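re the bet — no i am not wrong, look at it urself. input seq straight from the record:
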Amino acid sequence: MTEKPSPRFDRPTISKVYENLPGYGVDLYVGGREGASDIPLLRAHGISTVLNCAVNLDFNYVATPDEVSHDSVGYGPALIRYYKLGIVDGPGNPDTMMLAGFFQLRGALDQILPEKPSYPRRERGNLLVNCRAGRSRSVALVALFLHVHLPQEFPSLSAAIDHVRTQRALQPEEWHETPKPMLIAAAERTAHWVALIDADIARSAKP
């Protein structure tokens, strides 16, 4: 399938930023609203899960609304396993928003849905993290995850950001805002908090 370029800088609507993620065996993608809303494109790339981290953007993946849905808002099983996080692309986010995003991303990868009719989308495919343009919020969140999950490969957050920037085809002239500086700072603080939380969980798990 031919992917239409994003309107700015002629980049793909979605970009594979990591292949065969260790521990999960899935590919990790970053994209914007055009790619996240293109169901055939998502399926062509084996993407079964979308994490939308933009507070000013929403999708409705429900193909067949429940019979008791309201006319204006239909609800029911979605074509994509969909997670929503509301980050502002700039100042205004509580520090805990990036922390919530990290655990939501890791949770989306770890979560196992029950074998029940009310959970029809149980397949475990590739994962897309999106924001409006796939340049700032999604880049910060995915870089944070790679830095924490693969510290030997990405020993610093900046190394992970540079990797995602390159894979996403972000041009050097836009790096000053991809991601926004306050989101990078939030991701740095989050990496420290995650280390403390994971260490506490590990201590609690010891007999």
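see?? Residues 35 and 41 are 7 Å apart (CA to CA). told u. also The two ends are 52 Å apart (CA to CA). so pay up
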